[in-house]
# Entry
Amino acid sequence: MGKMMIVNANIVTPLRMINNGYILIEENKIIEVGECSPEKCRDMAGDGENCCELIDAGGKFAAPGFIDIHTHGAGGHDFLDCTAEAYLGAARKHAQHGATAILPTITTSTIEELKKALKIFKKAKAENREGAQFLGLHLEGPYFSMEQRGAQDPRYIRNPKPWEYMEILSWSDDIARWSAAPELEGALEFGRYLKKRGILPSIGHTDAVYEQAVEAFENGFTHVTHLYSGTSMLRRINAYRYPGVVETAFLIDEMTVEIIADGSHLPASLLKLIYKIKGADRIALVTDSMRAAGLPEGESILGSLENGMKVIVEDGVAKLPDRTAFAGSVATTDRLVRNMLNLTGVSLTEAIKMITLTPAAIMGVSDSKGSIVPGKDADIVIFDKDINVEMTIIQGKVMYKKKI
# Structure
């Protein structure tokens, strides 16, 4: 790869919009960003041996590539299918919708499936050249509250045991995040162990009360998995009111949260409330997408093809067959941004921050990803005013270009 130059773009930064901007890329890094007159752009593009690959954004928006830190698949693939193509196919589909980096998430499953999925991920990571980059793996379960399990398979839910999670971690060095219910016996020790290993412990599918959630935060659980979905709220116990994880997340300023802004899991009123309290610096937008993301509605499977649960995709969301609960999102990252703009009225810069710089910071990769800054990875998405993705660039390479 040589030089690439994006011109005639409205560049979205965490603080402002650079109108009529340019982005100069060399190899896989951003080397220069700024406003550009036609004469300056011509001079910088050069000719002959010094010529850049020139991309005219046509006055559309250029933003950092979207980062999804919670996805189970897309495009007909689930990561529990335990094939390299499941990882690669989902990565390609996410890239078509603007994601340049994802955290593949493995739901509660059998130990055999988990072990196989971890092994296959390493192979897929080495072969991934056409889709969103992998930031590591997110294990969602099996250490959850039965009362807040949602669509998690109850057959596999249990308390954390040191011998088990240490063995699982010995199988792979790709695990970057692990969601668990902190009120379970042994969970705080589990959180401390993860933190020591450089893995993010996340509060998820939990029935914890305020005091338990505060103690969890003190023991490394600094992030909340899909707030309001599988997380406890204010309730009465023996006539007394007890705040839950939702209220704890609001009270602890430093605690980060993620939200499924697919327009179904959370109504506009709650999206506005979460944004008002936490702000864009503490909120990551996530798809929590299952295999049906990016596909037409109809029947699908949550989890692996072999052991997963049948679901119905309708009204833009996956539901259990009896329609008593949601069974995962079918959102893509562009839809998350579009919904935050249309449902909450936040600015474009704030909406973009929640799908770029904030998730990058939560996962500890903001030094290389999450904003269009010289020295960072050349991960860029170009889209129109309605957040329809025109082009996705990953590490300085065009991975997706909309067909005209």
Q: What stands out?
A: The domain at 65-362 is CATH 3.20.20.140 (TIM Barrel). Residues 214 and 252 are 8 Å apart (CA to CA). The two ends are 25 Å apart (CA to CA). The longest strand covers residues 3-12.
